[in-house]
Structure formats: C-alpha cells, structure tokens
C-alpha cells in the first residue's frame, strides 16, 4: 500500500535587493486666452409728467431687454390722481472681452532603479505624467 502525504509551509525568498525611485516636479508657464462675458447696464430717465386715475396706476414692466420702472407721485387736486412723473429704462447690453494670462502647468518625472542581482537586471526607466 502506497500513501501520499502533503506538508505545507512558508519560507522567505530574497527576490532582489530593492528599488529606488526618484520623483521630480517641474513647472512650465502656459499662456491662455479666454473670452469672458459680462453685462453692462444703461440707466435712462424718461420724463412722462402725465396724470392717470388710481385704477390705471402703471407697474414695473419688461419690454425686450429693457426693464421699465415707473416713478409715481401723488398730486393733490380736487380728487386724488396719479401723475407718472418719469420712467426709468434699464437696458442690458451683452459684451465680451478677451483676457490674457499665464497659468502654471506641472509635470512629474519618475525614475525607477532596480537592484536585482539576477540575470534579468532591468535598466532604469522614466515615467512622465
């Protein structure tokens, strides 16, 4: 009769002397041109000077890109009426401009040196991100 037996164990094996890594970071200026949008407001006072009944009192309204805000004043007459003194017209004008500036971009270089003693010793390698 034959019998097989199995014994398991662990042992430490030296696979090489190690690795050395060198990492450097370099910065490179980079010119950028970017178009920026901004709003410019034009405020204009328009004289109206018109008496209107209380039931017809105007309210703020929008006409295209212009916001019209009525300025009201009570005037004492035999009866109370509203006079539209003026309107304030606020117009939005979309403009653009190009802004130039410099930003700093970084690059990393990594050099790996292996210290293996075996026949397949690797040369140093460089990785760039």
Task: Describe the structure in brief.
The chain has 129 residues and is mainly β. The protein is 0% helix and 66% strand.
Structure characteristics:
mainly beta; five-stranded antiparallel β-sheet; elongated; DUF2382 domain-containing protein
Give unreliable regions as ranges. Answer: 120-129
H/E order of the elements?
Answer: EEEEE
Shape: elongated
Give the tally of β-strands: 5
Organism: Massilia atriviolacea
InterPro entries: DUF2382 (IPR019060)
Protein name: DUF2382 domain-containing protein
Pfam family, one: DUF2382
What would you say this structure looks like, in words?
- By secondary structure, this protein is mainly β.
- It has one domain (19-128).
- The protein is built from no helices and five strands.
- The protein has strands at residues 19-52, 61-63, 66-75, 81-114, 125-128.
- Strands 1, 2, 3, 4 and 5 form a five-stranded antiparallel β-sheet that branches.
- Strand 3 (66-75) and strand 4 form a beta hairpin.
- The two termini are 64 Å apart.
Please outline the helices and strands.
Blueprint: E1 19-52, E2 61-63, E3 66-75, E4 81-114, E5 125-128
Antiparallel strand pairs: 1-4, 2-3, 3-4, 4-5
């Amino acid at each position: 009769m034959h019998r097989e037996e199995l014994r398991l164990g662990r042992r430490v094996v030296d696979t090489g002397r190690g690795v050395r890594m060198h990492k450097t970071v370099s910065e490179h200026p980079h010119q950028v041109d970017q178009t920026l949008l901004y709003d410019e407001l034009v405020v204009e006072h328009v004289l109206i000077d018109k008496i209107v009944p209380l039931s017809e009192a105007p309210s703020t309204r929008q006409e295209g890109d212009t916001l019209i805000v009525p300025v009201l004043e009570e005037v004492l007459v035999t009866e109370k009426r509203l006079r539209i003194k003026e309107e304030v017209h606020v117009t939005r004008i979309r403009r653009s401009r190009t802004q130039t500036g410099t930003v700093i971009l970084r690059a990393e270089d990594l050099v790996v040196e292996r210290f293996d003693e075996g026949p397949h010793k690797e040369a140093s390698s460089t990785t760039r991100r």
